[in-house]
Queue: 2 jobs
Job 1
Amino acid sequence: MALPTAVRLFEMGARDGLQNESGPVIDTAIKVELINRLSETGLKHIEAASFVSPKWVPQMGDASEVMSGIDRKPGVIYSALTPNLKGLEAAIAAGVDEVAVFGAASEAFTQKNINCSIKESLERFAPVIELAKANHIRVRGYVSTVMGCPYEGEIAPAQVAAVSRELLDMGCYEISLGDTIGVGTPLKAKRMLEAVSQQVPIDKLAAHFHDTYGQALANLYAVIEEGIAVIDASVAGLGGCPYAKGASGNVATEDVLYMLNGLSIETGVDLHKLALTGHWISAQLGRSSGSKVALAMGCQGS
Ligand SMILES: CC(C)(COP(=O)([O-])OP(=O)([O-])OC[C@H]1O[C@@H](n2cnc3c(N)ncnc32)[C@H](O)[C@@H]1OP(=O)([O-])[O-])[C@@H](O)C(=O)NCCC(=O)NCCSC(=O)C[C@@](C)(O)CC(=O)[O-]
């Protein structure tokens, strides 16, 4: 299949990135400034917060304050995770544009992450999706552990396909396929996608790959060759997953953008501004950017 002419980048840094930071809870003002800076790069889709239990993920405990603190740039969609009705109600009150439910293809990961079975998770999501739709809010669905689980190991592509199909049938507009612990390789990614795309049209799928084993760009190239045109990524490669020990961040948005620019695939995102934002947030966290491209570009100014 020909490569897509355009790709939509879905920025994860403020949520998937920051949720996993150990140490003190990051100031709300820093989260707000990160999102505001990201909004100026041309990104049109920013996951800004997570309305989950603060006991489970302390870094996301100020989701409402973050949402009320940011400058909403017209044309940018600000989304948040909502695992249950309590989260959705808070997200609606905070004025999110879009929400996401998050399940997994692995029973053990689902238990560790959201404290229920896959079946129970889908039952829990049903009223969330219903209420979101009644409020004219679109719902995205995540499926984690699509290429491997930290607790169960190998995950059958058919299982990924089944959970993805359920979420689509329940009303999610898009299913994001998460290689939560970054264990995938290109052939595995293609095989997983082949199974899923028999159940969910490829234009309703997104790739959400972590870079733990340094395979994320190769895996992304493999799936865009198959028609994937939505990519989740995290500025400066921030993040990991609090319930997946050893998982490193999402692939760095700067690195994905550099690759897409090289392929003449349109994104509308300014690489220089994005790299500056990545250096800025990395400095706030007391480290260097996790993006190889940003480091190579060397633009450290604010
Ligand atoms: C789902 C629950 C809440 C179940 O957790 P639970 O303990 O089974 O829930 P519960 O209903 O028994 O409630 C326990 C306490 O949490 C409170 N609570 C309950 N819900 C909420 C809420 N929405 N907001 C705020 N507080 C909430 C509730 O009020 C209660 O408070 P208490 O009475 O003890 O004071 C919990 O397991 C949880 O919050 N998990 C979140 C885990 C998480 O955020 N993981 C990271 C995101 S997923 C991810 O990163 C992967 C992804 C998406 O990026 C894709 C990939 O890379 O693969």
Job 2
Amino acid sequence: MTKRLIGLTGGIATGKSTVANYLHSAYNLPILDADVYAKDAVSIGSSTLAQIATRYGKEILLADGNLNRQKLGEIVFKESEERNWLESVIHPYVRNCFSQAINESSANTLVLVIPLLFEVGLENLVSEIWVVYCSPAQQQQRLIQRNHLNSEQATARINSQLPIAEKVAKADIVLDNSFTLESLLKQVDVAINKNIHITKLPI
Ligand SMILES: CC(C)(COP(=O)(O)OP(=O)(O)OC[C@H]1O[C@@H](n2cnc3c(N)ncnc32)[C@H](O)[C@@H]1O)[C@@H](O)C(=O)NCCC(=O)NCCS
Ligand SMILES: Nc1ncnc2c1ncn2[C@@H]1O[C@H](COP(=O)(O)OP(=O)(O)OP(=O)(O)O)[C@@H](O)[C@H]1O
């Protein structure tokens, strides 16, 4: 049987992790998360972390040898050339993690959380695409609150991604997270019971 692979995406801080956590706790679905793989790619001792330290100097590391993520974020969300370079060294690892996890899993349904699904062109990796939406103003407010960023830093992060309206236009399912958590989770309950993946299969 073909696996149901749900690609969960959206803008930064629109609510992807909130949806993924619910799908895991309420439906017991395995979650494969690009952000987790991307963090693993730069763990201490990795060749990627060494490449990053060569490019930006030892100052990009914390005292314990781990990557100073805040500092690297300051660089790459301001300069698209640096972001492209970082993506070129991290994304192959992330893709490989997804392929391996999908192949090894015996579950019929898997949730793939991929913030940059459209930007990186991973549409074909999944069988259906869910986009979590909230307005750019709410995105900005939630990002500032959660990550303790100033408004300029939050705007830089939001602008480094495809506009949320364009993501919505490409979605199979849109989860509107402009309201309460309860309203979001009700939409997830409806979405998980739809059989889009079956209707999308080639005849
Ligand atoms: C720059 C880094 C070190 C900042 O780390 P930080 O802990 O502050 O953020 P975190 O990794 O938790 O990401 C939070 C969100 O930022 C957004 N984001 C991350 N990387 C990017 C990027 N290259 N372009 C646009 N948005 C991004 C995503 O929405 C993500 O969910 C980190 O985001 C990173 O290594 N990015 C490059 C790898 C990447 O592209 N990851 C995205 C998933 S593959
Ligand atoms: N309906 C809501 N109302 C208010 N706050 C919310 C709502 N949904 C999520 N949030 C808050 O917004 C923030 C972003 O949510 P979440 O971490 O799920 O987003 P994300 O898309 O996974 O973010 P990232 O792209 O950074 O990984 C969190 O602090 C979360 O608690």
